[in-house]
Write a structure and sequence with these properties.
It is globular, with a radius of gyration of 16 Å. It has a five-stranded antiparallel sheet. Helices cover about 35% and strands about 15% of the residues. A hairpin with a 2-residue loop joins strand 1 and strand 2.
Length: about 200
């Protein structure tokens, strides 16, 4: 069994044993046609592991804090779907050059207070980023939450994420690729999201 298969089994087990926030029960998985429609709307493919989460475990509702957003359609939880949130963020960023949204960075989980966990669908390892806009400056609103989606999921299943009360590891670091991915000149690095909150 591959590492991803083992990870998917651990995620599925934890998802089945955790009541989703705002949901009566874990949503059913999506089908291949739904992921194809999502990719067509986005204009880029989903990372394989992310697609497998939706295809095999459920259409959102599991994962850290409020859990994964639904992929394409909003459910009873009133959370926006990941695709709709991405498209809205890209549209908003096009209208407000002070707050550009990087192409290919898909919001997958809402942390509350306008914060999102996002997958960089352009990175080979599907880096998970934290968008934390509350400091009021787009250049200091992006952090690397986990080097890969697999690492992010492992941290959730093992209870070792930065968001856990018992966490004693380092805070997320600034995402240095933000200026490159948005065509903005780099600015001095800001603090951690814990300092900004």
């Amino acid at each position: 069994m591959s590492e991803n298969e083992q990870l998917l089994e651990r995620v599925a087990a934890k998802a089945r044993n955790t009541r989703p926030w705002g949901w009566a029960s874990l949503p059913e998985p999506v089908d291949g046609a739904t992921t194809a429609r999502a990719e067509a709307a986005l204009g880029f493919p989903l990372p394989a592991l992310l697609a497998e989460l939706y295809l095999r475990i459920g259409d959102g509702g599991f994962g850290p804090e409020y859990g994964l957003l639904p992929l394409l359609d909003s459910p009873p939880s009133a959370e926006p779907a990941a695709v709709a949130q991405y498209l809205a963020n890209r549209d908003s960023g096009a209208k407000d050059p002070d707050w550009p949204w990087p192409e290919g960075v898909l919001p997958i989980s809402h942390w509350g207070c306008a914060m999102y966990a996002c997958v960089d669908c352009r990175s080979p390892q599907a880096t998970v980023l934290l968008f934390e806009p509350n400091a009021g400056d787009a250049d200091h609103a992006w952090y690397v939450d986990a080097p890969s989606l697999a690492d992010w999921l492992r941290a959730w299943t093992e209870g070792t994420g930065w968001y856990e009360e018992a966490h004693e590891g380092p805070e997320p670091t600034p995402w240095d690729d933000f200026p490159i991915r948005t065509g903005r000149p780099p600015t001095p690095t800001g603090g951690s999201p814990a300092q900004a909150s």
